[in-house]
């Protein structure tokens, strides 16, 4: 993993499309001394802290992104969390009585397994996964020894995981911690009261992350994130037809279309979501671990959990109705991709492999598992050959004409079986098995679907982004760049987030694509209102005839490597930087409000014209603007104002910094902000609370009365944030106190022993 320190990183895809841009926003907010609760650079604006991928409350993020460059901080944190994952898995395996070499094998297998290889581009995954074995390890320590400090460490692991967001893997972490306690109590290996202690630790962990959890829960409710459709819950499963992959992982990587499209569409998943292997040597030793009948903490539990989670991962294919019924339960359906259940199965196989690499295993159990793994390998190779000849499977043809990876697989299995047999008869040390496993797993890790390459510095390395960054007046940038412009401090018009987008955000993206595909003035009216000034496309754009627009065609190797490419697009693309019609100002004044009766009428009105002095609103929207609405008594407010000695032409927004505006006005007017009207926003006019309206299909608006110069202050305070922050702070203080006091605690028996020894030395006179 040392390449991360010198710039060798997951390149393109989600790291550049979403994670590093969000971290650039986090870095800017931290250096400005602010909480990154909201960002105006994500389309019409988004509640980034609630969206959770930014992980704004996670202490290492707050330190690294405040101090270091975004690219270096991203790589350094990836290295630290992967090393932490390996160390935590080792510690957890040791707590389950694995030998040092066996624990190292478990750590290697879990750190570089197939799940980790395909999700190396998903920052929340490898960050959160590190806390899965950590929390289980601390739970084991607490169940054995008790103590408030051990309980606090368990809560710390659970809380840190929740601070990282995404919340899917965290669900399994909490479930497995409680399952560990229940298993130990039912087997009489721990006190019953300590199960309640783990429940308390779970609540404590939630309290530590109360602030982001409250924000995310509110946003999920607003956007309908909880209401997943049946289709969403069924997609991205693990195909049962890939059962051979644990023994032959290179075969499914050999599809001609890569990790997406073609075959993957037919099995309703992608190669970025479905991969299941732990390495050849770990798989051999996992068979041995399954055959081992020795008692011991956790072994029986993982023998049950491993196949159970594999069944969950494949259930959409063989029992779809049962899968839909199970995912209808509270929280269970939040694990959006069924194939991600293979994470728990991978951990189970890794731990059983560590248990198998132990000379205390009986000869009968070892050779039974060894022979069983050899039979599984032979069956998997036969099954893989049959699959490769199946209908619809289009593999890359190798020079030898053999299916992809067959020679490699045969060689590694031969070495693995020979080495483990040699270890058993004491002809090779156990650590040679760990070395062979690491060699195979690291090779698979760096040659998987995640593209690894040298860091690309933006905007310096990108002609398109450099051109955009040099423009003096720039609005939002639509097109195919997703969140990438945020790395340059530019607002994106095509936001890419993990949560569902607001309808207005989706509409803006659709309008931009419509404007590209057809020379139609109607979508442009919307884009002008939404503040879109430029667009970047890697396909021809039918907008070259408009006099207000210009197109620059550039080659850009940086964008070629970073931006997602359609299957019918050449690897070396021509990039089109389009300057659209000048958008309306981000903050502008309007003097007329037209009210329509339905969304259809509103859409028709907004499509037909753009008048900066007019705003449109639907009846029922929260905006009391009667004084601005044309009526029979005041058909022309501008003329009335002039006759009263007021000069409407002098009305202007004198200053705007994103949160406050100075407005010079003569009579009633409306201040329109090209920002999403969302829950949590409030406004004050000259210090007094005012109503925040929704106009022009979703933008913010506030009415200003009287005349003169008014100060308008906008504030974003999402529901429950203050309470959540207080709860998190109190839980953190309690955590620090308990750990500090617990670490300095001296056992009473040791104190009495020391006193007795001192008095013995003093003798009778003393």
Can you lay out the helices and strands and say which pair or pack?
Elements: E1 8-10, H1 13-31, H2 48-51, H3 59-67, H4 70-95, H5 100-111, H6 114-118, H7 123-129, H8 131-145, H9 148-163, H10 168-186, H11 193-208, H12 210-223, H13 230-234, H14 263-266, H15 280-291, H16 299-318, H17 320-327, H18 342-356, H19 363-388, H20 406-424, H21 430-446, E2 452-454, H22 463-469, E3 476-479, H23 503-517, H24 521-529, E4 532-537, E5 550-555, H25 557-562, E6 574-579, E7 587-590, E8 592-596, H26 599-608, E9 614-618, H27 637-643, E10 652-656, E11 660-666, E12 669-676, E13 681-685, E14 688-690, E15 693-695, E16 699-704, E17 707-716, H28 721-743, H29 748-762
Parallel strand pairs: 3-4, 8-9
Antiparallel strand pairs: 1-2, 4-6, 5-6, 7-12, 10-11, 11-17, 12-16, 13-14, 13-17, 15-16
Helix pairs in contact: 1-3, 3-4, 4-5, 4-7, 4-8, 5-18, 5-21, 8-9, 8-10, 9-11, 9-28, 10-11, 11-28, 12-28, 15-18, 15-19, 15-20, 16-17, 16-18, 19-20, 20-21, 23-24
């Amino acid at each position: 993993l040392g390449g991360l320190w010198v710039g060798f990183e997951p390149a393109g895809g989600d790291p550049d499309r979403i994670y590093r841009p969000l971290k650039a926003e986090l870095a800017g907010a931290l250096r400005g001394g602010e909480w990154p609760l909201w960002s105006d650079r994500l389309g019409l604006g988004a509640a980034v802290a609630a969206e959770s991928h930014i992980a704004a409350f996670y202490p290492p993020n707050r330190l690294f992104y405040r101090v270091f460059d975004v690219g270096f901080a991203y790589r350094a944190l990836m290295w630290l969390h992967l090393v932490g994952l390996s160390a935590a898995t080792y510690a957890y395996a040791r707590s389950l009585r694995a030998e040092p070499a066996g624990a190292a094998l478990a750590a290697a297998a879990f750190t570089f397994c197939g799940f980790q290889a395909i999700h190396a581009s998903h920052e929340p995954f490898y960050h959160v996964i590190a806390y899965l074995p950590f929390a289980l390890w601390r739970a084991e320590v607490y169940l054995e020894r008790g103590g408030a400090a051990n309980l606090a460490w368990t809560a710390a692991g659970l809380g840190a995981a929740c601070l990282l967001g995404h919340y899917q893997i965290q669900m399994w972490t909490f479930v497995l911690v409680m399952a560990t306690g229940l298993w130990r109590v039912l087997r009489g290996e721990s006190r019953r009261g300590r199960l309640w202690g783990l429940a308390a630790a779970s609540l404590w962990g939630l309290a530590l992350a109360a602030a982001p959890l409250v924000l995310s829960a509110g946003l999920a409710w607003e956007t309908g994130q909880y209401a997943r459709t049946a289709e969403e819950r069924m997609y991205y499963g693990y195909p049962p037809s890939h059962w051979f992959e644990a023994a032959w992982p290179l075969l499914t990587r050999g599809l001609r279309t890569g990790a997406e499209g073609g075959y993957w569409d037919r099995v309703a998943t992608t190669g970025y979501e479905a991969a299941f292997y732990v390495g050849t040597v770990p798989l051999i030793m996992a068979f041995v671990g399954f055959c081992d009948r020795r008692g011991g903490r956790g072994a029986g539990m993982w023998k049950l959990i491993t196949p159970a989670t594999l069944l969950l991962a494949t259930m959409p294919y063989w029992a779809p109705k049962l899968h839909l019924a199970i995912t209808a339960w509270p929280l269970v359906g939040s694990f959006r991709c069924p194939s991600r259940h293979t994470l728990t199965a991978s951990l189970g196989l890794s731990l059983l492999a560590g248990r198998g690499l132990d000379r205390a295993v009986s000869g009968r159990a070892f050779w039974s598992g060894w022979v069983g793994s050899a039979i599984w390998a032979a069956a998997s190779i036969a099954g893989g050959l049959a699959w490769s000849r199946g209908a619809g499977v289009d593999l890359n043809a190798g020079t030898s004409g053999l299916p992809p990876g067959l020679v490699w697989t045969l060689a590694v299995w031969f070495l693995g079986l020979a080495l483990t047999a040699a270890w058993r008869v004491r002809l090779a040390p156990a650590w040679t098995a760990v070395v062979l496993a690491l060699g195979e797993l690291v090779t698979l890790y760096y040659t998987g679907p995640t593209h690894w390459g040298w860091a690309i510095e933006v905007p310096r390395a990108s002609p398109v982004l450099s051109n955009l960054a040099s423009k003096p007046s720039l609005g939002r940038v639509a097109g195919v760049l997703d969140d990438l412009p945020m790395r340059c401090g530019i607002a994106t018009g095509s936001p890419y987030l993990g949560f569902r987008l607001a309808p207005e955000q989706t509409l803006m993206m659709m309008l931009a694509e419509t404007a590209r595909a057809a020379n139609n003035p109607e979508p442009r009216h919307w884009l002008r209102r939404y503040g879109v000034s430029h667009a970047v496309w890697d396909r021809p754009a039918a907008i070259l005839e408009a006099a207000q627009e210009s197109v620059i065609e550039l080659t850009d190797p940086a964008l070629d490597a970073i931006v997602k490419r359609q299957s019918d697009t050449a690897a070396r693309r021509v990039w089109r930087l389009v300057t659209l019609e000048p958008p309306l100002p981000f903050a502008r004044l309007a003097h007329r409000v037209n009210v329509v009766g339905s969304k259809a009428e509103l859409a028709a009105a907004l499509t037909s014209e753009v008048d900066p002095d007019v705003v449109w609103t639907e009846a029922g929207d929260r905006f009391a603007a009667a004084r601005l609405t044309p009526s029979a008594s005041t058909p022309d407010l501008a003329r009335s104002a002039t006759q009263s000695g007021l000069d409407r032409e002098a009305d202007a927004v004198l200053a705007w910094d994103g949160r406050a505006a100075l407005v010079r006005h003569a009579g009633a007017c409306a201040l329109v902000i090209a920002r999403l009207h969302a829950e949590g926003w409030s406004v004050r006019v000259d210090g007094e609370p005012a109503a925040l309206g929704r106009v022009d299909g979703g933008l913010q608006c506030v009415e200003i009365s009287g005349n003169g110069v008014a100060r308008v202050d906008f504030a974003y305070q999402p529901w429950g944030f203050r309470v959540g922050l207080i709860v998190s702070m109190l839980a953190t203080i309690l955590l620090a106190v308990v750990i500090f006091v617990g670490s300095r605690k001296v056992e009473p028996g040791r104190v009495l022993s020391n006193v007795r020894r001192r008095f013995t030395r003093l003798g009778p006179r003393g």
